[in-house]
Amino acid sequence: MDVKKVLEAAIKDLQSAITEHDLYEVRVSYLGKKGKITELLKSLKDLSLEDKKSFGAELNSARESVEVFYQERISKIRGDEINQKLINESIDITFPPQNAIIAKAHPISKTFNEVISIFGSMGYEVAEGPDIETDFYNFSALNIPEDHPAREMQDTFYVNSLDEKNNPYVLRTHTSPVQIRTMLNSKPPIKIIAPGRTYRCDSDTTHSPMFHQVEGLFINESATMADLKGTLVEFCRKFFNVQELKVRFRPSYFPFTEPSAEMDIAYEIINDRLSIGTGNKWLEILGCGMVNPAVLENCKIDSNKFQGFAFGMGLDRITMLKHGLTDIRSFFNGNLNWIYKNGFGLGDF
Fold first, then answer.
1. How many CA within 13 A on the CB side of residue 303?
2. Among candidates 227, 223, 221, 140, which has minimal Cα distance to 187?
3. What's the pLDDT score for residue 95?
4. Is residue 101 part of a domain?
5. 145 upstream amide cis, omega within 30 of 0
6. Peptide bond into 259 cis (omega under 30)
7. What is the tally of structural domains in the chain?
8. Is residue 349 in a domain?
9. Alpha-carbon distance 258 to 207, whole Å?
10. Same domain as 263, residue 191
C-alpha cells in the first residue's frame, strides 16, 4: 500500500471531523491496534532488511504526522467551542446571580477613608513605603536593639534575601519604616500619617498574620505631649462619633518614643452590645509618645533643635470596635454574604 496515499487520506479525514469524538474515531482508524498505519507496520516482518529500514522510516514519519495533525485539530475544535460559548452565553454561570448580592465596600476600606479624612482635616499628609523592608528601616533606625524580642523568628516574617549589610529583608512589622524614610528624605516640619498593611506571626480571633495599621508623625521645634494627647482625643471623638469620650493615657515603653504611653478608651456593655466612650471598663486602643532623640539623630535631624510625637494604631482593631465585629479573620475570608451583611453602600462610604 502507498504510504503517501494513506497519509493523505488520514489528513483529509481529520480535516473533515467536526467534533472531538469524530476526531478520536479517525485517529483510532489509522493509529489504533487495527488501524491502517498500524497494520502496515505489522507487515514489516515480511520485508527484507533494506526494505524494512526505508519503509519503516516512512511509516514512522507518517504516524508522527497524523499524531501532530490530530493534536492541532483537537486544539482548534476545543478553541472554537470555547469561543462559541463566549458568544452565545451572556453571563458566566459560575458567578452568583447579579441580583443576589448588592455591591458593598469592605469595612476596612471604609475605615481607611475615614482615618485619612479625619487626619487630613488636621493637616496630615499620607505617606507610603514598601511592604518588604530592610533591617535598618524596620528595626535599627527605630532604636530597636538586636536582642529585642520583636526581631525573633516567631514574631517576624523574614525573607530569603540579604540587604547590602547582609541582613535579611523582612515583611514590615509596622508602618514605622515609612516614618524613617520620610524623615531621611524631608526636612522638618513633618506632618504625616502612614496607613498600610503590616505582617506578624500571629493568628487568632483578634490577630491576623497580615493586618492594617496607621501611624502618625509630627516633627517641628515645639511639639509637646499635650499636642499629641489633643490630636488623639480629637481623632477618637470623630471616628467613634462620641463627643463626651472618656479616655486615659498610661505610661508604657517603646524603643522609638520617650516618654511613651498607651491610650485607653472607656466602654460598657449595654443590652449585650459594647458602648464606646462611657463606663468603667477600659480598652487599650493605641500606642504613642514623643519621638526618641536617638531616632531623630538616626534620621539626620538635630534633636537639640527639633522634637515631635508619633502614634500607631491597628485599623482592623478600631474597625471591630466601631462596628461590633468579633473575629478579625472574617475580614479576610472573602465571604460575599459577610460583606453584604457588614459592608457599606456607596451612600455610606
1. 13
2. 221
3. 62
4. no
5. no
6. yes
7. 2
8. no
9. 27
10. yes
Rounded average pLDDT over 271-298: 89
CATH number at residue 323: 3.30.930.10
Asked if residue 47 is part of any domain, the answer here is yes
Q: What is the pLDDT of residue 348?
A: 63
* Domain housing 36: 3-88
Residues 6+ apart with CB under 8 A from 320: 206, 326, 328
Distance (Å, whole) CA 139 – CA 129: 15
Residue 1 identity = M
Q: Classify burial at 246, counting beta carbons within 10 Å of its beta carbon; exposed 0-12, middle 13-18, buried 19 or more.
A: middle
Q: Which of 42-56, 69-83, 146-160 has the highest mean pLDDT?
A: 69-83
Q: Please check whether residues 256 and 125 belong to one and the same domain.
A: yes
pTM for the model stands at 0.67
| Amino acid (one-letter) located at 156 | T
The one-letter amino acid at 218: F
Q: How far apart are the first and last CA of the chain?
A: 78
| Secondary structure class of 59 (helix, strand, coil) | helix
Does 179 lie in the same domain as 297? yes
Model pLDDT for residues 180-239, shown as the tens digit of each residue: 999 999 999 999 999 999 998 876 766 678 889 999 999 999 999 999 999 999 999 999
Tell whether 19 is covered by a domain. Answer: yes
C-alpha cell at 15: 480535516
- Within this chain, do residues 126 and 77 fall inside the same structural domain, yes or no? no
Q: Which helix (H) or strand (E) holds 50?
A: helix 49-88
